Amino acid sequence: MTARTHPILILVVAEAAESGVWQLSHSGMSSNLTLDPATFSDKYEDVVVWENTVNGQRVLEEADTWFSKIVGETVKLIYFGDKSNAILTVDQRCLLPFADGYPFLLTTQASLLELNRTCP
Fold first, then answer.
1. Measuring CA to CA, how many Å separate 46 from each of 2, 42, 52, 85?
2. Domain boundaries in the chain?
3. I want to staple 81 with a disulfide (CB 3.0 to 4.6 A). Which of 47, 57, 66, 118 is the partner?
4. Considering only CA atoms, which of 77, 75, 74, 84 is closest in space to residue 44?
């Protein structure tokens, strides 16, 4: 699921808290979501990213519920965990976890400025 098909996801704000922990917020939600990989499920399941099957780690039911309310349909949040397998890029030169097919993404200048401000 991407913001291409569910543009409301663009309004999710992610802020790095402490080491590896993220705070997510959304204007349509009354509470924030804390994501800490140390608390994620130990269960893994196969997910399809385009035509590639990737083994991903289940996060938390709380996260599934939070994102499901935002997009208006049932969602499972999956994490690229220690036991996950990556897919190869189209040209077979690079392994990618849950990416569309290329080892880079586009961003905005404002996002880069915020990244540099919070992670010098």
1. 18, 14, 10, 10
2. 7-118
3. 57
4. 84
